[in-house]
Amino acid sequence: MKTLTKLALTLIAVAGLQACDPYEDENKGTPSVTNVIATDGGAAFEGTNTGTSWTVATTSGTVVFVKANPGKLLDGASIQVTPEDCTPAGGWLSVNGAGPGNWMSCYYPQSPASFEGASVVLYPGPSISATESWFNLTELAAGIFNLKGTVSDKQGHPLDIDVNVLVNDFAAAQSDTAGTEITVDFSDAGDNMTDVQLWEAPDNSGAPGNWTAVATTSPYVKTGVTVGATWWYKVSADTNGFPTTAASFETEPVSVTTEPPAP
C-alpha cells in the first residue's frame, strides 16, 4: 500500500480528458498492462501479475486503474460509449463471467509521469458525468471481482485486460485501554467470495512469524495480549467461480502493537 504520490490525480471531466494528448512522442508499439492500482484517492494498493493476469487486494477503494505501457495512448472509443458516458463501449467488459452490469470504464489518457501510459478506469456506476470525482463514488463492495475484456490502442492493436480485485474491509486495532486486547474487523462474506479466513501471526523482528488461522466470522477479538506486543493479521479468500484458474487471494498483512494506559 502507498499514497497516491505517483498518480497525483486531479479529477476533471472525461470530456476534457478525451481532448488531451499528453505525449509528445506517442508509443505506437504493442500495448501492454504495466500496473493495476485500486484506490479511494488517498491510499493506493498496487497489483501483481502472473503473465497477463493481474491481482490487486484492497481494504477500501472506489476505482481500479489499469495502466498501459509508457507513452501508450489508447482508443477511447473502444473503452467508453461517448466522451461524456463511461458505459463500456460495445459491452467490452465482463464482470465475473457476465456482462458489465453497473460497472463503468473510463479512458484516462493523461499521466503525470513520462514513464506511464494511459489508463482504463474501472468502477461500479454511475457514469463519471453524474458526479464530480471518481473518489466521490461509493466504495467497492466486499468480494472478488474478475474484470476482463479487450480494448485497443490508437493504432488498432488489442489490449487484453484481465484483473482480479479482492475487496475486504479489513482493519485491526487495540480495543481496550489496558493494552491487552486487539479487535479485528473484516468482510466475512462478499460477491464471488468463499472460504474467508482471518490469519494471525506473532511478530518476528518486524515481520510476521508463523501464520495461524483464527477466525472465519467477524469481528475477531484477541484477549490476554502482552502489553507492547505486536501481532500481524491478514485475510484470505477463495473465488466462487471466477476466475476459474485462481485458487486464493489474500490482503496485505497489517500489524498492531498494543500500548499501556496513559499515565
UniProtKB/TrEMBL annotation:
Listed A to Z, the keywords are: Signal
Q: Which domain of life is it from?
A: Bacteria
The signal peptide here is 1-19
- Return the protein name: Uncharacterized protein
